[in-house]
Design a protein that fits this description.
Layout: H1 5-19, E1 28-32, E2 39-48, E3 51-62, E4 65-66, H2 69-87, H3 98-111, E5 125-126, E6 135-142, E7 147-151, H4 157-166, E8 170-178, E9 195-197, H5 199-208, E10 210-211
Helix pairs in contact: 1-2, 2-3
């Protein structure tokens, strides 16, 4: 399975609600290709006269190996346990000490997760790096300030563009070429259908897409 930042962020929010009472501030998320670890929690430390403070947390998942969604979710939840312990300055006997193992075992027993303190990396297959897939993306904003993204079948671009040009509820729409894996979960459509997204995601994605001009 191929994952993106949106996958990590959305599942972090779900786990935060289900297991941590929404008490974990959203950290940064990153994807890497580390060979020796499947996930990591990174942070910076500021030292003062009154002690040290950890900040700027980042949860990073490795895509070096070809893993299932279930494996990625277990890794993410594993790193969230580290995040909870660190954020709350809980003293443990080691990185995967008594506190960590107690929380891990509770999640495994109560919710049927398969968290562990280590993974036999030699049992995993190395993920094949694929060339980025180009997709034709339509970005639209409605008169009610709702935001939409859609992946369009190129053969239907003029047909759909004409519909959006005439749609009374559409304030603006633009076309882009995308190589972002975020759009891999979108179904390529032949009709004016789109996924509603937040303004934050809309602005973030549009800012990195390549404009496509119809001629």
């Amino acid at each position: 399975m191929r994952i993106d930042i949106n996958f990590i962020e959305s599942n972090f929010e779900k786990f935060n609600h289900d297991y941590f009472e929404d008490k974990l501030p959203k950290p940064k998320f990153a994807i890497g290709r580390a060979k020796m670890i499947l996930g990591s929690l990174n942070y910076k430390t500021k030292h003062t006269l009154f002690g040290s403070k950890r900040f700027d947390y980042t949860i990073r998942l490795s895509v070096y190996y070809d893993q299932s969604e279930w494996q990625y979710l277990n890794t993410l939840l594993h790193e969230m346990l580290h995040y909870y312990i660190s954020l709350n300055n809980i003293k443990d006997t080691s990185a995967h000490g008594k506190v960590f193992r107690s929380m891990m075992n509770n999640l495994n027993k109560k919710y049927n997760w398969e968290l562990s303190v280590s993974t036999k990396l030699q049992t995993l297959n190395i993920a094949v790096k694929r060339a980025p897939v180009e997709r034709l993306v339509l970005a639209a904003e409605s008169n009610k300030n709702d935001y939409y993204l859609s992946v369009i079948n190129p053969d239907y671009v003029r047909y759909i563009d004409n519909i959006f040009c005439k749609a009374p509820n559409i304030k603006s729409h633009k076309w882009y070429i995308a190589k972002d894996e975020y759009f891999s979960s979108f179904r390529q459509v032949r009709s004016p259908r789109a996924r509603k997204v937040s303004k934050k995601i809309y602005d973030e994605k549009v800012s990195i897409l390549e404009p496509f001009i119809l001629v």
